[in-house]
Write a structure and sequence with these properties.
This protein has four helices and no strands. It is an all-alpha fold. The relative contact order is 0.15.
């Protein structure tokens, strides 16, 4: 899969950090759109949970529901959720330099 195909909203919402990385060489996980074993940014299918952060996980550091929890377990699960991704404007707008920004940079990007 090419980098260009990983840089669109559809990929980010549904597949970013959900498909295992096929690369065998050492590389920077944070800059890779694919999941790596043990990486905290890995995500569950967004159809299985909402964008609201799990209060139990935030308070206790663990969730008794595990993967069956109806709430997000990470910033990636929350902000890349289809109900939340790019629904608000980026505070840095045109000067944003984030590798992956969860926010819209123009009115056209707002969802």
């Amino acid at each position: 899969m090419s980098f260009d195909s990983c840089a669109n909203d559809i990929f980010r919402i549904w597949y970013h950090k959900r498909i295992l990385c096929a690369r065998n060489d050492k590389h920077e996980w944070a800059a890779c759109a694919f999941a790596h074993p043990g990486e905290r940014a890995n995500r569950r299918d967004p159809r299985t949970h909402g964008p609201t952060m799990c209060q139990e996980l935030e308070q206790d550091g663990k969730c008794s529901f595990g993967d069956a929890c109806p709430n997000a377990h990470s910033a990636f699960e929350s902000w890349l959720h289809p109900l939340k991704y790019r629904t608000t404007m980026c505070s840095d707008a045109q000067t944003c330099t984030r590798y992956l920004c969860f926010f819209a940079h123009s009115q056209d990007e707002l969802r």
